[in-house]
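Fig. S4 source data, part A: sequence.
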Amino acid sequence: MATTLTEEDSGAIMWPLLQAALPKCRLQKQFPRKVMFGTKWSQDIDTPSISVTQTVQHVQTIIQHGHRSSPSHDLHVHNMEAIQCHLGSEIPFWELPFKLYGGLAPEGWMKFTWQHLSPTSLTL
């Protein structure tokens, strides 16, 4: 949950694993990745995407520590306040498009989470 792996990083991690695992599953090494990273419900292989799993874990962490009295809670609140301050907007940054406002936010785990959550319909 503490990682900030890009899509390229995720691909670099998964590539050698898939090259070794796919033949063992009797699948071609060039098996379409869109099919591979689907769900069993859609009759795909249900291989979890590192990027999606990472974003889900980030959101779960923010929600879990949102109401606890802990150092993690304090750090999350501080980082969210810093982003909000840098943007200079009264609208919560989670509701703003990252493409327009992301460049104003300080680098870090919270900005990374916002960047990966922004293209989805989810918000905090």
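Fig. S4 source data, part B ends here. Residues 62 and 105 are 18 Å apart (CA to CA).
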